[in-house]
Amino acid sequence: MSKTIQHSATICIGEVGILVGQLTYAKSGLRENSSFSYTQQWLQSTERFSFSPDLDLIEGHQYHKAASGSDSVFHLGIADTEPDGWGCRVIARDHAKRRKILLADGREQSFEPLTEWDYLAGVDDVSRVGALRICDENGNYLRTIEGHERATPPLLELAHLLGASQAVERKKETEADLRYLRGRGTSLGGLRPKCSIIDDGHLAIGKFPSITDERSVTKGEVLALHLALAAGINAAQSRIIVTDNSSIAVIRRFDRTHNGGRIPYLSAASMLQAGRDEERAYTEIAERIISMCAEPKHDLAELWRRIVFNLLITNVDDHLHNHGFLHVHHGQWRLAPAFDLNPFPDKDQELKTWLTEDTGPVSSIKEIMNVADHFWLEHTQAIKILDEVYCAVKNWRTVGVNPAVGMQPHDLSDFAPAFEHQQIKIAASILNR
After folding, report:
1. What SS3 class is residue 354?
2. Where are the alpha helices (DSSP H) in 213-263?
3. Are the beta carbons of 204 and 251 closer than 8 angstroms?
4. Helix locations, 231-319, DSSP H
5. Is 6 strand, coil or helix?
6. pLDDT of 29
7. Can you give the pLDDT at residue 30?
8. Which of 181, 229, 249, 320 has CB atoms 3.0–4.6 Å from 268's, for a disulfide?
9. pLDDT averaged over the chain?
10. Is 309 helix (H, G, I), strand (E, B) or coil?
11. Which carries the bigger pLDDT value, residue 388 or residue 70?
């Protein structure tokens, strides 16, 4: 008979921890599911809103199970706070290391395999994405760093974090490395090594170069974020910091206020209720903006601007989890600042997210111009946006050598194909340049 595992926790929201509801998880054999129920306090509150599009504001339990093997067992808004890629890797390696130690000491003959609950609960509360917080029956937020250690270290500890992350990549990590990374390196998605840090009092992400990199990926991302700002895009603040001869990208978190408050966040995948393997389109995001956002005209123009920008810098990793929304008030949202912008000089100009449900992946600036009206843009407005993005991208070499980016001649050579290609020439011809 399959062993049944059950966990339950309270879901709170915001820095003050307003009680929202109860989350329950169950696993029996290969079957996993979860349920969530709102509290009467939240349902009767004037501040209530649905933090997940698959959770109606109603009484009673609302059940969820993964639609496919790659989807989460939790409702979408909760799943957005789970670790992914690097964070899962750190949690899994820590689990395996502790199991090995216990078995060697003869103190444990069996060690339960990790469940989705373990990954969800393994994220540090201080840096968990968005405003949701998970609280156990004893009133402790999950996950809280043991003892009196700082959960989120300052910039001064970047070298230590870099060393521990590289040890994990090389599969030579020690128990001390994993203990140090637990919490600090588990709250964020993506496959590349990263951590949470405090940058001048603000929560930030430190992104490390990978030992497998053939070019400075971290410099490329910071360059793209700086170009985005120059192109009129609302983008995350970033800069390069050099530690132990390694270029680390430091990127400010935008789901926190200036005084440390937490802002509810949803990925575009969650907003569309899309499975991880589903092909979805920018026009579908546009439809959600129209129905869910406080300023749809502004956000539609911003989204169209980002599509143009992504194509012109060859950011072909523009999947739905690399777009997000921040809650404004009373169930209304706005586009989150652009993040995870990465030029790919070794790939063709074809974006991952489709342009429309009929046209398929974005691969032509002319196609983008042809659907401007879907984003409430007149032709003259679209031309103006294209011109602003084009001028910013054409200036990429100058921005690249800015001290905040720190590119060297070989970096410029490495990234040139991402910025100097046929689509930038076509954009120039449309603008009569």
Report:
1. strand
2. 217-230
3. yes
4. 268-271, 282-292, 296-312
5. strand
6. 85
7. 82
8. 320
9. 90
10. helix
11. 388
The burial of 70, by beta-carbon neighbours within 10 Å (0-12 exposed, 13-18 middle, 19 or more buried), is given as: exposed
Neighbours of 295 (CB within 10 A): 15
Inform me whether the pLDDT recorded for 396 exceeds 90. Answer: yes
CA neighbor of 364 nearest in space, from 349, 383, 354: 349
For the CA atoms of 155, 161, 166, 169, the dihedral, rounded to the nearest 10 degrees, stands at -120
Other CB atoms within 10 Å distance of the CB of residue 176: 10
pLDDT at 333: 98
Q: Give yes or no for a contact between 55 and 77, defined as CB atoms under 8 angstroms apart.
A: yes
User: Which residue type is seen at 245?
Assistant: N
Amino acid at 104: A
Whether residue 230 has pLDDT greater than 70: yes
Helices (H), 324-407: 365-370, 379-394, 396-400
Closest CA to 152 of 101, 193, 197: 197
Instruction: Give the model confidence (pLDDT) of 253-279 as tens digits.
Output: 999 998 889 999 999 999 999 987 788
90-122 residue pLDDT tens: 888 877 777 776 666 665 555 678 899 999 998
Is 36 within 8 Å of 55 (Cβ atoms)? yes
Instruction: Check residue 168 and give its pLDDT.
Output: 85
Q: How many whole angstroms separate alpha carbon 209 and alpha carbon 200?
A: 22
Q: Which two tokens stand for residue 207?
A: 């992104």
Distance, first Cα to last Cα, the chain: 72
Strand partners, 18: 13
CA–CA dist 369, 427 (Å, integer): 10
Distance CA 76, CA 258 (A): 27
Report phi then psi at 113, rounded to 5.
-65, 155
Residue whose C-alpha is closest to residue 220's, from 369, 2, 419, 55: 419
Cα–Cα distance, 199 to 249 (Å, whole number): 12
Nearest alpha-carbon partner for 343 in 243, 174, 226: 226
pLDDT over 70 percentage in the chain: 92
Q: What's residue 189's pLDDT?
A: 59
**Tokens linked to 187:** 């709250």
- What's the confidence (pLDDT) of residue 148? 43
